Amino acid sequence: MIEAQSLTKRYGAKTAVNNIDFTVRPGQVTGFLGPNGAGKSTTMRMILGLDRPSGGFVRVNGKAYARHHAPLRQVGALLDAKAVHPGRSARNHLLAVAATHRIGAKRVDEVIGLTGLESVARKRVGGFSLGMGQRLGLAVALLGDPATLILDEPVNGLDPDGVVWLRRFARSLAAEGRTVFLSSHLMSEMAQTADHVIILGRGRIVADAPVSEILAGADGDSVRVRTPQVEHLTRLLEAEGATVSRAEPDLVSVKNLAASRIAEVAAGAGVVVYELTPATRSLEEAYLALTRDDVEYRTTQTSPEVNR
Ligand SMILES: Nc1ncnc2c1ncn2[C@@H]1O[C@H](COP(=O)(O)OP(=O)(O)OP(=O)(O)O)[C@@H](O)[C@H]1O
């Protein structure tokens, strides 16, 4: 269980995490989502006692991380998979970390098996691919058989098989009753892995809900309408009870009105329409809509591939 209250982190004038409250519960996978720079890593670092909050607090399994006598046995974390001595073998690296907590070689070999590292366990970590490095990071996280796992962007660098493996693995850890908290900037990834998501935008929580709820909310149908007479058509459609939001200078998204009715209204008023496309909003779009105002560095591309 992870509990944050009024958790805040400021770096000079910049507020990276702004007074957030949340609880991550055992027995399920909780996804931590947000665009780059939203504050996910900073929050995870505070959970793990690597950064001091400027305000508020966060507890893991009932206590601040630093107050646990054997933190590896409470919390397993995967933050930066590259932070490993390159000359050591994977097994020796695990043995070295295990020794700090009086964890024996038997458990080291167990986690090697759990993470599928048997064939490379005696190879130098320096030659590992990113995916193998991620598996090794996970093996370290699991050494103490912790009740809580915190994984920062764990699918980064994994090949498609690795992604499927990690997804199943995260779910099996949660099924054992553990708290599994993993970050990602991809909603589509979380939709397949997490039971619950907490979405961060510019240091604030913009959603904290079961994935099923976000999916249900994402299914509102809309119609994309491209026209050079945006203002005029918007007024006409709103008079019909539609909700119209502007996506681009000449493009609107229309809800609560059928495409056929939009066409009739436009034709009746002599409004030129270049495009009229009924669209079902994908989960990815729902996520983008939630975080639209919170992206620090925006590209000019606005419509990602539909991805569910
Ligand atoms: N040590 C630091 N000093 C100053 N600013 C920082 C520091 N660490 C993070 N920030 C700023 O805090 C904000 C949140 O960063 P953070 O890395 O937590 O975001 P994130 O959601 O994890 O993003 P990413 O996916 O890019 O890692 C960003 O604006 C970042 O530039």
TrEMBL record:
Domain ABC transporter, residue spans: 2-227
Cross-referenced Gene3D superfamilies: P-loop containing nucleotide triphosphate hydrolases
SMART domains registered for this protein in UniProt: AAA
Keyword rRNA-binding: no
InterPro entries (alphabetical): AAA+_ATPase, ABC_transporter-like_ATP-bd, P-loop_NTPase
Similarity remark: Belongs to the ABC transporter superfamily.
Name of the molecule in the record: ABC transporter ATP-binding protein
Organism: Promicromonospora vindobonensis
